[in-house]
Amino acid sequence: MTIGLRMLPAALLVIAATGSAQPAPPKFDSNRAWEHLRRLVAIGPRPAGSPAIAQSRTYIKAELAALGVPVVEQAWDDQTPIGKMHMVNLVATIPGSSKDRIVVSGHYDTKLFREFRFVGADDGGSSAAFLIELARVLKSSRNLLTTELLFLDGEEAVVEWQGTDHTYGSRHYVEVAKRDGSLAGLKAMVLVDMIADRNLRIKRDANSTRWLTDIIWDTARRLHYDAHFDPATTTIEDDHMPFLAAGVPSVDIIDLEYDAWHTPQDTLDAVTARSLQVVGDVIVAALPEIQKRLASQAR
Q1: Can you give the pTM of this predicted structure?
Q2: Would residue 225 be called left, alpha or beta, if left means φ above 0 and alpha means ψ between -120 and 50 degrees?
């Protein structure tokens, strides 16, 4: 009996097309990301310079080590309005066909509040949990460019978001890359921040690089996630700004319409694994398109 290609399962379609079985590409698993988020939130408030953020670093590094993803600490002391503070970025590297690299980043610190307990489930927790799960996906993928997963410390203002009291980690990373010459190999940066809101609505950022934004929003539309990736435009200052200032194409994926932002209510009750899945699906699908564009530019 002749079987039409439409009747073949997906795995057999790969065999029919290539002549050999190919493993299905890994998918982002929001259940895994949610477990990382739950465990980070259980640590409690995790502001820069605190014992709790050191504990979260230990957790992140252990999870990456279990995946076989090497990670290094980028540590420094920075001046803040309340004195010098020790901060640490974590840089995890997944090799690609090219040594040129793309950075996917997010912050893992939570804002310091003395008047209430702030565990930052969305603001600090969601981006860190997302990056750990993304490491698992990309580790098993074929990547044109090397990917750095950058866990940024010190995104939050220690006191108020003004002057240089914010984006300590991203500014430090860019400064180091300029000094050691590695900035030349950095071709693009994708930033995720506050991506687990139960009512996820991410607007296009006017500061972000247009072509990067277009690829991500076009991917969201193709995946029927239009309701979550809004075509409306807003203007955002975040960890992508130092990269943009250094000439690196960058995009910020952030939901600022989060009712629990910087309140005691930013807990697990205010976020959902479904939103992590939406952003995970979009970023995993968009990264190959971004890398293809960058590879073609290099040629």
Answers
A1: 0.92
A2: alpha
**What CA–CA distance (Å, rounded) separates 216 from 229?**
9
User: What is the C-alpha to C-alpha distance for residues 215 and 286, in angstroms, rounded to an integer?
Assistant: 7
Report d(CA 208, CA 237) in Å as an integer: 10
For the chain, the maximum distance between any two Cα atoms, rounded to a whole number of angstroms, is 77
- For residue 134, what pLDDT band results from cuts at 50, 70 and 90? very high
CB neighbour class for 278 (10 Å; exposed up to 12, middle 13-18, buried from 19):
buried
Distances 268 to 82, 195, 246 between C-alpha atoms, Å: 30, 13, 36
Bridge partner residues of 107 (DSSP)? 152
- From the list 265, 293, 4, 221, the residue with the least C-alpha distance to 121 is 265
Helix and strand counts by DSSP (H, E) for the chain: 8, 8
Paired with 150 in beta bridges are: 91, 105
Percentage of residues in the chain having pLDDT higher than 90: 88
Give residue 12's pLDDT. 39
Query: Which CATH architecture is the domain 22-298 placed in?
Result: 3-Layer(aba) Sandwich (3.40)
